[in-house]
Amino acid sequence: MTLRRVSLFAIAVGLVGCRDFMAPPTGPATARAPRSASADWAYQPSTPVDVHMLRQSQTAPLLETYEASFWAVDGEASGVTVNYLPAAGEVVGQPFLRFDIPKNALATRPGGDRMHRGDSVLVTVTIDPVTFAVAFQPSGVWFSNGTPAQLTIWYENADPDYNGDGIVDDVDQLLQQQIAVWFHGRTYWVPMNSANDPTLPSVSTTLYHFSEYAVSW
After folding, report:
1. Which of 39, 98, 115, 124 has the maximum number of C-beta atoms within 10 A of its C-beta?
2. Dihedral over Cα of 161, 163, 166, 171: its sign
C-alpha cells in the first residue's frame, strides 16, 4: 500500500469535519459527540466522535422550498415531503426529504404536557441550503416509543467528495458506507441508529423528539 493510500485510509476513519447548522460555508469544521444512553443514538462512543456533514453538490438543483409547515394532529397520520425542483421534462423533482408522523405517535406537546386525541401542533421544518441539515420545531414535542416518527433524506445530490480533499476516490466510497443521520444534542452532534442505502442513495432513522438532524459520516 502506498503512503498516499495509507494516509487516505487514516482520513476515512478519523478525519475531523463539521460546521454549525445554518452557518455560511467556510470549509470543514468540527463537532464532537459525547457518551449517552439515549435511544436516538446508534452507539455510545467511549471517546468524542467527529462528524462531517454532507454538502449539496455545486450541480445540485434547488429545493422546491427550504421551510415547510404542517399541522400534526394526535390520532391522525401526518407528514411532509420536500423535493428538488424538477429538471426539464420532469413533472416532479428528485426526492430530498420525507418526514412521517404515524397515527397516535404524538406523546407530548411543548412544555411536556401530554397530547390528547384531537390535539394539534404546528410543525415547521427548516432546511439548510448548503448542508444536509434539517431543523424541526417546536422543541419539546416528543413521540411515542412504540410509534416514533420516521425521517428519510436522499443524498444523491450530495458532493461526492465526502472528505473534502479535492479528489473523488476509493476513500469516498468507503466513507459513503459510514453515512448516518446525526442528532444535535445539548452541546454535540451524535450519531443515530440509521439505515443507509447507498444504492438509492438515502438514509433513514426514527425520531423521538424535535431537534436538528444532519446526514453525516
Report:
1. 115
2. negative
